[in-house]
């Protein structure tokens, strides 16, 4: 009977010491989660907008406007000064929508809007 009592006593002692929570693992500082997991990168004319304008607008709004285009959209200064008119035209669905040969993708429209909302950064 003493052998069984000793065995059970040791088993209980092992169980108690193995289940203790005296670990330092929970005491180490954990990094804070990213407060903005999907940060919005800055949209700039040089990196994002210039290629959209060049691909879709400058065939008519080139350095010498053609096809009755009223203005040139070949430089940052020109595009930024006409941003409200550009946004109006690319978001239209009927008469006067631009570009005349199609529609900009939602991604391109959103980039142009983000560029305006972000302060019309050049580069």
TrEMBL record:
Signal peptide residues on this chain, from the entry's feature table: 1-23
Entry GO MF terms: electron transfer activity; heme binding
Record key words, sorted: Signal
UniProt region (Disordered), positions on chain: 22-42
InterPro entries: Cyt_c-like_dom_sf
SUPFAM superfamilies linked: Cytochrome c
UniProt name for this protein: Cytochrome c domain-containing protein
Annotated organism of origin: Aestuariibaculum marinum
Phylogenetic classification of the source organism: Bacteria, Pseudomonadati, Bacteroidota, Flavobacteriia, Flavobacteriales
